[in-house]
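Recall the central idea of this unit: under ordinary conditions, the amino acid sequence of a chain determines the structure it adopts. In this exercise we apply that idea directly, starting from the sequence alone.
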Amino acid sequence: MPVTEDFLKRNEAINNFKLSLLPDDAGDTIRIIKIGDYDACPCSGVHVSSTKEIGKFQIISTSFEDGVLRVRFKLPKE
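Accordingly, the structure predicted from this sequence is:
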């Protein structure tokens, strides 16, 4: 599944995304990471270009709040 990135001005992104989880120094241009048609979210972290690059991982927690499903995971140490 392709992982793509778009860039939006903060005033555009704030209309469609929750920006409060980004660091204070995220800037005026916000990077939006899209995973196929399944998810799109603002992010300042590192991402793979395809989910097949991830390989095995372990889900460490999940939560569902305000209509948002969040899955937290970790990758095995190399």
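The chain is about 5% helix and 40% strand.
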